[in-house]
Design a protein that fits this description.
It contains 15 helices and ten strands. Helix content is 45%, strand content 13%.
Length: 356
């Protein structure tokens, strides 16, 4: 290991903040295990109990019709496509009912930016769910929120207030990809800018609505752009404290217009560890078994992750890119135990519901 990388790792493990150059030096370094050990030390400092959490949830994609047509996405359809759909409310209720019967506490609803659905569709959906179910609605990522502002002429704040009154509880971190406009113009030219993404999140935080943050890495970004993404999340967190968790996942190229190669396991673990080291003010780092599978997610628990994510009784977006990892509840529990931790079911706010 170079002395400069060792100094960076010691600095991070001691709880001192890393800068752009230091983050990049770690991603360029070949010292994967030592980077992982430093991230694990930070995880232990933030979460001293040997517990790894997960949430019982379901992803419900209410429509696959989307006008944005991102180059990295294999999920979207046009209104003319034969397999385009919009879920009826009763279909959504059936999915939630099944989730609740399985002990689920959270639904994550996201969909395409449908040009023809009115804002009332979303308000009625939220109200109908809350009338029928006691479940946390973690839904509508920043691109959807900005889409609603264009439908209505309202501000981001006004849209969020209306959604909150109808039943929205928190916002997922989707649509972040890489928070850099060079990258965004190439992979998703019709999507919101990184500044708009951050604005939705900080506005939500100002209204008392918590969110998560994500990063889809390994498409066309440089290492500097990848680390800058982390710094922009960290800067926003300094201002608001509203991010509950950070979830990095690797780009899945199959069936997409963008194409390319998926990130290696080494790149995933290194990026996860650097995320834990850079994001000194974000409490939770989630492993991504959806893109990596259970075994890699298990290893992630020694590279800075303290949360196994959701059971995801349903997931469609990553599956459309040809990745079909399914991890039953028993496998999640065994993966956590075999990694030396005690599994615990949590809610969206990271409060423990049940130990296993």
């Amino acid at each position: 290991m170079s002395s400069s990388v060792q100094a960076v790792l010691e600095k991070a493990a001691a709880g001192k903040r890393l800068n752009l150059e230091e983050g990049v030096s770690l991603l360029k370094s070949n010292d994967l295990l030592l980077t992982g050990l430093a991230a694990d030390a930070v995880r232990k400092r933030l979460h001293p109990e040997p517990v790894v959490t997960f949430v019982i949830d379901r992803n419900i994609n209410y429509t696959n019709i989307c006008q944005t047509k991102c180059r990295f996405c294999a999920f979207y359809r046009t209104e003319e496509d034969p397999d385009a759909y919009v879920l009826k409310n009763e279909e959504i209720y059936d999915k939630i009912r099944e989730t609740v019967e399985c002990g689920g506490t959270q639904i994550l609803m996201q969909g395409g930016l449908h040009p023809g659905l009115p804002f009332d569709y979303y308000l009625d959906m939220l109200k109908g769910i809350k009338q029928r179910f006691d479940i946390h609605i973690h839904s509508f990522s920043p691109p959807e929120i900005v889409h609603f502002t264009k439908l209505t002429g309202m501000t981001v704040s006004e849209v969020l207030k209306r959604l909150g009154e109808a039943g929205l509880d928190s916002i997922p971190g989707g649509g972040a990809e890489i928070l850099d406009n060079r990258v965004r113009k190439y992979i998703s030219p019709h999507k919101i800018s990184w500044e708009e993404w951050i604005n939705v999140m900080t506005t939500a935080h100002g209204l008392g609505m918590k969110t998560t943050a994500t990063m889809m890495f390994g498409s066309v970004e440089t290492l500097e752009e990848r680390v800058m993404h982390l710094i922009r999340v960290r800067d926003a967190q300094d201002r608001t404290g509203g991010f509950r968790a950070f979830i990095p996942w690797s780009f899945q190229p199959a069936n997409t217009d963008l194409g390319g190669e998926t990130a290696t396991g080494v790149d995933y673990l290194k990026t996860l560890a650097v995320s834990r080291l850079m994001l000194d003010n974000v409490p939770n780092i989630q492993a991504s078994w959806v893109t990596q599978g259970a075994k890699m997610a298990q290893i992630s628990l020694s590279f800075g992750a303290n949360d196994f994510g959701g059971t995801m009784l349903e997931e469609n977006v990553v599956r459309a890119a040809g990745v079909t990892h399914r991890v039953p509840m028993d496998e999640i529990l065994n993966s956590i135990r075999d990694a030396g931790f005690r599994p615990a079911q949590r809610n969206t706010a990271y409060k423990i519901i049940k130990y296993y």
